[in-house]
Design brief:
The structure is a single chain. The protein has five helices and eight strands, in the order ββαββββαααββα. By secondary structure, it is of the alpha+beta class. Strands 3-4-5-6-7-8 form a six-stranded mixed sheet. A two-stranded antiparallel sheet has the order 1-2. Helix 3 packs across helix 4.
Length: 280
């Protein structure tokens, strides 16, 4: 039997033409090239987004609350699932006469990359190292200052949408829920760590009248909160602030009583000395 050879190359007046590669090989090569280009483009976009994140966050906060957010140093790497801001400042909205609110040494968060494509952002851990928190209230009462202050106003700016929807008639709730699903930023924090170095409470913040310092306490105060979402953050944060106020108020009261007792002791001691000299 004659041997039959398969030779698909052809000859033209200009010379032989190379044999074509099978279609599946050409298709797989193009697919691999597209995948590499897509990966490079995605990596570049994510890296660029990480660098632009302080500006994105600042714009969102300003639009929602009127507060001013700034970052001194940004070491965020979304590819590594890490948000890292240093020397952060959050300044009050114009309705408060003292601009001071939050001075944060560092904000560090872990974020699940898969959640960036979903409706809810997932943070396994979020830590804030707070140098100074200044609570400001128009009220002169400490109890009322806990319930109404610049921190509550800030949190309400991001949570009131849900509260408003809850009070609407039934026929409008469905539409509100759909709109909220499209626009609302949902999140879940497995562990929120807060560290406070200095805590100040100013009361009586009204126009034409300087605020009065009710509490000015220094000293480390650490707290951890678990399972935080956009639905419960106000309640959980305010409980922490209430504990912090009570702790600092008790400490301030003890210091004040100690100073008054010391002054009273010195005064009484001086009077006893004078009486002794008079007897002589």
């Amino acid at each position: 039997m004659d041997n039959i050879t398969d030779n698909t190359s052809t000859t033209t007046p200009d010379g032989p033409v190379a044999k074509k590669k099978p279609f599946y090989k050409r298709a797989s090569g193009r697919f691999l090239l597209c995948a590499l280009v897509l990966f490079a483009a995605t990596s570049l976009f994510v890296s660029f987004s990480g660098k632009m994140m302080p500006g994105i966050v600042a714009g969102y906060i300003k639009a929602k609350s009127g507060y001013t957010f700034s970052v001194g140093e940004n070491n965020t790497s979304l590819l590594a699932g890490r948000v890292d801001f240093q020397n952060v400042r959050l300044v009050n909205s114009p309705e408060f006469h003292d601009p001071r609110f939050l001075d944060i040494a560092r904000i560090k968060a872990e974020i699940k990359l898969s959640s960036l494509l979903e409706n809810t952002r997932e943070y396994p851990e979020l830590a804030l190292d707070i140098r100074e928190l200044v609570l400001i209230s128009e009220s002169n009462s400490l109890l009322q200052a806990v319930e109404k202050n610049n921190l509550v106003t800030f949190i309400n700016a991001f949570t009131d949408e849900q509260d408003d929807a809850a009070t609407q008639p039934a026929d409008k709730k469905d539409k509100s829920a759909k709109d909220e699903k499209k626009t609302r930023k949902k999140f879940h924090i497995d562990k929120l760590s807060l560290k406070f170095d200095r805590f100040i409470v100013l009361v009586g913040d009204t126009s034409g009248k300087p605020a009065k310092t009710l509490i000015d306490g220094s000293g480390v105060f650490d707290v951890e909160i678990t399972d935080v979402t956009e639905k419960n953050i106000r309640e959980k944060i305010l409980k922490v602030i209430e504990r912090l106020i009570k702790s600092k108020a008790a400490s301030s009261a003890a210091d004040r009583l100690g100073r008054e007792a010391s002054a009273l002791g010195s005064l009484l001691g001086g009077k006893k000395g004078q009486k002794g000299e008079e007897k002589k």
